[in-house]
Amino acid sequence: MASTAPTISLKGVTKSYGTGPLAVDNLDLVMPARSFTCLLGPSGCGKTTTLRMIAGLENLTDGTITIGDRIVDSVPDGVFVPPEKRGMGLVFQNYALWPHLTVRANVEFGLRIRKVAAAERRKVVDDALATMQIGWAADRYPSQLSGGQQQRVSLARMLAVKPEVLLLDEPLSNLDARLRLEMRAELKRLHEETGHTVVFVTHDQLEAMTMATHVAVMKDGVLQQLAAPLEVYHRPANTFVAEFVGSPPMNLIDTTTAIGAQACAYLRPAGDVATVGVRPEHVRVVTGPAPDDAFTFDATVKAVLPTGSSWTVSVLTGDTEIYLVSTEPVAARGGETLRCAVAAGSLHTFGKDGARLAGDNAMETEWAR
Questions:
Q1: Contacts of 238 (CB under 8 A, 6+ apart)
Q2: Fold exhibited by the domain 248-350
Q3: What is the pLDDT of residues 339-361, one digit of tens each?
């Protein structure tokens, strides 16, 4: 199922509902052709509103949306292309399958509306069901399928009409953990095989990190960072992104604290730094000498939280709480003291406005990893 895979461009896109803050505030965002872009952020950040404006389900207050070389919505130019003429496939959180129709009838529904001939309909539906590996259920009804299987049918129905763009609004949130994992792999496979331009809305950072080629982090209707998943993780644009992406979140330490001042001694220059960040997996427990490029500090254990594959430890140094993650067992109890070390190369620096400082020390050294 080849796709023309257009670029999606949003310029100055704004959405106001008349009262309260803007739902989307002057958004400039380019989603390259064949990309899998995740709109990531907490509830109310504007990600679903953005997707609905791309789909044509919400009117813009201002700005322009271009799909490929075609303007589909522009307030300045007075252009609005209705949703059904935008060449897009939509999948939402609920599967929206007709319960009285078989899987085959559900998938071919859009083709019937378009008056596609019966022989062609059958071939297209067979191809879509095969792509989603659900062909064996063609004659079953939605009630006879699991949640993950129903979502596959929903995706097959979308693919059958051969959209240029796939718009997915938290399609996995109703699935249990095992099915979510299965469907993440399925969606990634689908993107690699079809080459569609995909826009995926989620509040789940793990979904964004595992599936996306680009992640657009949003807060209060404003784009915070657009980058590849690992860049968002390893070089967050500001303290919001640093805390939102990562579990446990990045430790953010005020430079006025004792541990913050100690960290600053390893920064060149340190004068503009208001906050120092370090990922929990980059805080190590040491029993002997620390590496030359690391600084050490004593910390009091608050809690040790085993997760099965790793141990998350909450410690206090002075009045500052820090989380560390270890893949080795941490033999300590609450109240005991641990010697911790942080490689200088794993420190992130942020200014008073929360923005990442240029030329900071976060070089991801081998020891920091």
A1: 224, 225, 350, 354, 355, 356
A2: OB fold (Dihydrolipoamide Acetyltransferase, E2P) (2.40.50)
A3: 999 998 899 999 999 999 976 55
